[in-house]
Amino acid sequence: MRKGMLALVLGLLCLRLLPALPSVGWLVALALLGLAALGTRLRLLGWFMLGACWACWSAQLALDDRLDTALDGRTLWLEGQVVGLPTRGERGVRFELAQPQSRRAELPQRLQLSWFEGPELRAGERWRLAVSLRRPSGLLNPHGPDREAALLARRIGATGTVKHGERLGEAAISWRDGIRQRLLASDAYGREAVIAALVLGDGGGLSRQDWTTLQATGTVHLMVISGQHIGLLAGLVYALVAGLARRGLWPRQLPWLYSACVLAMAAALTYGWLAGFGVPVQRACLMLAVVLVWRLRFRHMGAATPLLLALSAVLLVEPLASLLPGLWLSFGAVAVLVLCFTARLGAWRPWQAWTRAQWVIAIGLLPLLLALGLPVSLSAPLANLLAVPWLSLAVLPFALLGTALLGVPVLGETLLWLAGVSLHGLFAVLAWVAALQPAWLPEPLPVWAWLLVCVGALLLLLPAGLPLRLPGALLLLALWAPREPIPHGQVQVWQLDVGQGLAVLLRTRHHSLLYDAGPAQGASDLGQSVVLPTLRKLGVQQLDLLLISHAHADHAGGAGAVRSGLPVLRELGGEDTGPALCASGERWQWDGVDFELWHWPGGPSSNERSCVLWVQANGERLLLAGDMEAGAERAWLASTEDPRIDWLQSPHHGSRTSSGEAFIKALAPRGVLISRGRHNGFGHPHPQVLERYRRHALQVHDTALEGALGLRLGSHGGVEGERAGRRFWR
């Protein structure tokens, strides 16, 4: 039984690795072969094939429900019902619309929409909306998150921006929204949004600083309703019944064990109902149900069996859950605890079990965090050692009781105020810990080094006294395994995917340069959310030069976040607005690579005053042109003896006022790298410019279509986009 479940789970999980889905014909054939194999010695292979076929079929249904490519970027009038809890931010509200209908087209079953400066929305309301629809997409950078995978796992068929709308009907069922409004209107010592997150699973009200603090201390799981919260509430109910029975206070006609399990499950389902039964909550309730059934009837089967059964059930219900990090981390944490707390000789004291649980989870989840490209919090064991009991005993009971008693004058508000005071203290401590030890974003490891870390972590989790634990600790030194160095005379170029903006990283063997830092506007700072994490994951420890082409927000907006996150030895800019002014003719050499600056200080506009960077490695040339327009292009040609290059960063994102005929003809590049946002409001790149590129037989590479663009200048190779790494959802 256990081997069959394991084979089924592996088949379901293999979906994550597929570059493309098999056709329907192949799925039917494989499913029939799998069924036939169940009655033979190849039954394990049969279970694997059935799991893989079920996962692929479910994924194909989700892909088929995405927005038609012909509707991508179009604005349609549609009607639908608001579901879930709309989230209000600084610039507007984000919400989901279910069962949308349009007279002009067939739409996906679920949309995720943003309405800038939109009105208050309630779950259950029906609206008629004018929406600019887009197929699911997202920025894609080296070792960064994949938004398309996350949207597919949530079965979001399209995203969009609301242009106009009118309410057609009031909310039919708005009790969760009503509870949230009452929580946000309460006096909880300024922590009303955090209490709403704990009670309703609505994390949209937490500030960016709160999320940064939680991430740095490895305590994000505390502020979203997850298995820990469901298990905590169920455990409290179970312990209460068990305690009453132990003291003879439980009715003898009711079997205490059966009652404890039933009441614990009822409490978990009630909490899940309050939280909206999202996928993480469904997963937690299902896991709990399996554990409680195991506790009642099947303890002789060991602790690993219910874990495997729960994982099988979760993946059968939603195979796309394997695309989300939460599934791997939640089941990984439970598996580590099962490994370390079962089949031990002797029992640990409660305080020993609690302290060791934090360390074994930190060690056991390390390989998963590395594989998923997630931050590693070095302070997580210590922070969770304090934060989990603090939240469990001094916050969550007050928050839940206060919510339940909001209708009782004074009492409910007082309990919420106590929860808020406790939360304020908890966040103060976590912020102090985060300041001492920020989260670590390790550079991705070679496969061999990652496998050594896996083996080392497993050996460290073995029982104390075994001689292999010390070698396990030594194997963790593979975390600092040397990476393949950049050859002398070459430069690694990454034009990052930052939407409608620009950020280009250039790395020689021992030096790093960042040309522009991505856009920032209001609460959206891609320097903080995209550029800085990508630099760290690529192994950049400091910037020898931060070069800001000019002062426009789409180029300079993220510079502040980069400065605060990394040491910057020198900074230059194309305009006299802070950094030292770029000077034409300045040249230098790093590791056999030549660099030269050009600047037109008399340019009539900020774009024309862009600082231009020319790079040459082993005879191969790159020109980073910022937002140069026609006038600057003519000035640059007039001042350059040999303008020929191999690669051109498309000036001004491919604007019609740039990339003139004479400029392209004189440069004669092999290819052009365009940095722009999909469906941007400027129409970049302009069709006339694209036609000009094609007429000169240039290779056109576009971040909106290919993700971040990588080039090894000096190797005379080609450009490769991040989307070249095929996945079935891209």
TrEMBL record:
The keyword Metal-binding does not apply. CDD domains: ComA-like_MBL-fold. The chain crosses the membrane at residues 44-63, 220-244, 256-274, 303-321, 327-347, 359-378, 390-408, 415-435, 447-466. It is a multi-pass membrane protein. Keywords: Cell membrane, Membrane, Transmembrane, Transmembrane helix. The keyword RNA-binding does not apply. It comes from the Bacteria. Residues 500-678 form the Metallo-beta-lactamase domain. It holds the Pfam family Competence. SMART domains: Lactamase_B. Its main location: membrane. Gene3D superfamilies: Ribonuclease Z/Hydroxyacylglutathione hydrolase-like. It is found in: Cell membrane. NCBIfam families: ComEC_N-term, ComEC_Rec2. This is DNA internalization-related competence protein ComEC/Rec2. It comes from Pseudomonas farsensis.
